[in-house]
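User: Structure please.
Assistant: Input sequence and predicted structure:
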Amino acid sequence: MPATKSNCLLAQGDALGPAIARAAEVIRAGGTVAVPTETVYGLAARADSDDAVAAIYRAKGRPDFNPLIVHVADQWSASGLAFFDRDARKLASEFWPGPLTLVLPRHERAGLSAAVSAGLPTIAVRCPAHPVMRALLAATGLPLAAPSANRSGGVSPTTAGHVFDSLGNRVDLILDGGRCARGIESTIVAVRQNSGCIVGWSLLRPGPISAEAIAAVLGSAPMPTAGSGIEAPGQLASHYAPGKPVRLGAERPAADEFMIGFGPVPGDVTLSADGDLAEAAARLYACLHAGAAAAQPRLAIAPIPDHDIGLAINDRLRRAAA
């Protein structure tokens, strides 16, 4: 079991306090800790240290032009790192703590490593809801940079075992908080400004919070993002890859394919036999990990409806297949 690994601590129930105390020591010393969030496991390090952030990039083999999400305890903490306009405050009030990341203009005196923004004038910031991550934020009193806890470009982890299989001893400590409930990375929204005036918002990465839900809060549709370049994590054309060719929209597998089913389309594993998109999102990466470990050299994946959280699932699958 993952919790028996030498660098893995159980972080549930009565074991939470001691595990968090040890993890906080590692973080304060500049180390890395894999920690569960409600979306996926993140690889956390103190965001105010160049050396600590470099350790994240080293462990993941991550391109340094790909920015990191900074996790904070609350909106007040975030306001010391980024400029919150009216729309950003509305979104934070509605969806934090939760799976929404905001890309906002960065304070010049935020005191963060420049590497978390990958040279951009903005910062991606999120207030997570998972009790283990929230406990770690409280214990350290620091903003934590925390991309997904896996090798760069690979399948994101939703269990401590996934983290260990991907990173092993590249991470100083793994907090085992069980399976992530949402199972898919946060929605990322950029609030657009021009000369200090709000001009709209863009959906940079679909996730558990839909564009429709964002639009309902802000009262406007999203602006296009074409040509804007990489502004946030998860925008690389090839990402979340299982290391094998992936065929999408498959109704049945070929002889050499591991089949991931959905709804009425069966498979070696299924995202959701009932066609439940929320269940499919929660199981997405577990199924991709199963496919990556299977004997078949190729993966086939059943069609997924392209609405609601299905948009986010299909976004990840297209990048996995690229």
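Residues 3 and 115 are 32 Å apart (CA to CA).
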